[in-house]
Amino acid sequence: MTRPPILDPLSVPVIGTDSHLPPVPAPRLRADALRERFGAGIAWEPEITGDGRLFAEREPAHAAVLVPLVVHEQGLTVLLTRRTAHLRDHAGQISFPGGRAEDSDDDAVHTALREAQEEVGLTATHVDVIGALPVYTTVTGFVVTPVVALVQPGFTLALDSFEVAEAFEVPLDFLMNPAHHQRHEFEFAGQRRRFLSMPWDDPGAAGEAQRYFIWGATAAMLRNLYAFLASA
């Protein structure tokens, strides 16, 4: 039996938040501290390794995403995209730039950098790869390597309008605070599904707030980044 798809995540009840967990200390969210931490070989375990059982039998496909941490004077932000509504996989969802590996790619880093340039026009000259998180397996059969990088400002984005509806930035300290991590749960045909969300209200340049509902695999990979940065 296949698992029930989540067609409307906003309607799935919130069963709680993780406000009992501490946020990542501010000093650990600096660019130099992140680079040092990824290079230190710290032993830790990811909290979430995948979405769970696949919807249907699909040959696993390797993929990579870029987790772009933009270095601003006021603090780091995470560059995210909203996928266009017509795509076959994860349509309309908030995601990192990334996609399926190609035979010509040398490794996951190559895949992530190539996809980021193709999807949002982020060139490698602005990107300093500092490490990677453990692979994450989606219900759609992708085995995803999250490649973490520091991104220097000054870049100009050029979105692939077929795949990307928009790009935006979220403060890293907001995402690394579990008080903003919501837990959802529902049951369908005797099967129980759970997922995380991290809704972000962007105040907007013109003062018109817009909510971005970060959930699913993207939220899970951000949660694993939290687990890595919060570990002793």
Overview of the structural elements:
It is a single chain. With about 230 residues, the protein is an alpha+beta fold. It has 4 helices and 13 strands. The strands form 3 sheets. Strands 2, 3, 4, 5, 6, 7, 8 and 9 form an 8-stranded mixed sheet that branches.
What distinguishing features does this structure have?
alpha+beta, Nucleoside Triphosphate Pyrophosphohydrolase, 3-stranded antiparallel β-sheet
Write the topology of this structure.
Elements lengths: L13 E4 L13 H9 L21 E12 L2 E9 L10 E2 L2 E3 L7 H13 L6 E6 L3 E2 L4 E10 L12 E8 H4 L6 E7 L2 E7 L2 E3 L7 E3 L3 H15 L2
Helix content: 10-25%
Mean pLDDT rating? 90
Secondary structure category: alpha+beta
- Please identify which CATH superfamily we are dealing with: Nucleoside Triphosphate Pyrophosphohydrolase
Radius of gyration: 17 Å
Poorly predicted runs of 5 or more residues: none
Number of helices: 4
Could you tell me the strand content as a percent range? 25-35%
Please tell me the total number of domains: 1
Short description:
By secondary structure, the chain is of the alpha+beta class. The chain has four helices and 13 strands.
